[in-house]
Each structure stands twice: as C-alpha cells, then as structure tokens.
Amino acid sequence: MGLLLILPVAAIAIAVLIGTYRRLRLVRADRRWWILFAALCIGGLVLGSWFAFHFTYQPNANTKITGAPIPSSISQLQDGKWTDSTRPLPSALHWLANLANVLSGVALALLPLGIASVCIELRDDIRARREIPPKT
C-alpha cells in the first residue's frame, strides 16, 4: 500500500529534476543559470532532509506524524508517552519514503527555476516568430 503513495511522489520529483535540467540545456542557459541550478539542488537536499527527518506535525492531540509529504513514522500518545504505531513501516518502505521526501524537497526548490526556463523558451519562440516575415 505504501508504494502506491511513494512511487508517484518520487516519479513527479524526478520528472521535475530531469525536466528542469533538460530545459536548461535546451535554452542553452549560461553559467549563472547552472550555478543557480546547483545551488537550488543543494538547498533542495537540505529542505528535503528536513522534510524526511525533522518535519513533525500533530493532526490531533494523540497522534504525531514525522515526514512530509509521505509520513515515515506515526506515533500515538499513550499514558503520557509517545509510542510508535502498532504497524510501523517495513524498513525498505521507510527508507523509500525518506528518499521520496528528500526528492520532493529538491523538486520544490527547483520548481521556480523550471518555470523561469519555460518562460525564457516561450519568450525566445515569440521573438523568433516576430523576426520571420509571414508568407504571402
């Protein structure tokens, strides 16, 4: 059941990462764009690590969830102590969820750059169309 949530999130994050990289190559981005790409990837790794290992929220008073967008652990408050859920994630799913959370952080950081590169490509297409005289 966990893979039904983990795989699409990871696939979307990887698609954003690869799509942004390819688009920057397509528009022949200069060095400044590539430095920004690298900086955003590093910042995204930090953000994703925080998502995976430190982000905790309480949907109600007796439940605590760690990890976002995919929960990697769920704890219940019993007798004043936080205890792990009665059905914890298997080890492989736990680490896949953490990996998907880290990739989500990278994708979230790269999203503005990806949108900017699409805008640049559209701008270049509009300029190219204006330079070509229409056929009569």
Keywords:
alpha+beta, 3 helices, elongated, four-stranded antiparallel beta sheet, 136 residues
Distance between the termini: 60 Å
Oligomer: single chain
| Strand elements, count | 4
Q: In what order do the strands lie side by side in the largest sheet?
A: 1-2-3-4
Mean pLDDT: 88
**If you compute it from the alpha carbons, what radius of gyration comes out, rounded to the nearest whole angstrom?**
21 Å
Name the beta content range: 5-15%
Percent helix range: 55-70%
Number of helices, where a helix is a run of at least 4 consecutive DSSP H or I residues = 3
The shape is: elongated
What does this structure look like?
With 136 residues, this protein is of the alpha+beta class. It has a domain at 3-54 and 90-131. The chain is 65% helix and 14% strand. The chain has helices at 3-26, 31-53, 91-131, and strands at residues 56-60, 63-66, 73-78, 81-84. Strands 1-2-3-4 form a four-stranded antiparallel β-sheet. A hairpin with a 2-residue loop joins strand 3 and strand 4. The longest helix is centred in the last third of the chain and has 41 residues, at 91-131. It is elongated and about 80 Å long.
Brief summary of the model shown:
The protein has 136 residues and is α+β, with helices and mostly antiparallel strands. It has helices at 3-26, 31-53, 91-131; strands spanning 56-60, 63-66, 73-78, 81-84. A hairpin with a 6-residue loop joins strand 2 and strand 3 (73-78).
Write the layout of secondary structure elements.
Blueprint: H1 3-26, H2 31-53, E1 56-60, E2 63-66, E3 73-78, E4 81-84, H3 91-131
Antiparallel strand pairs: 1-2, 2-3, 3-4
Helix pairs in contact: 1-3, 2-3
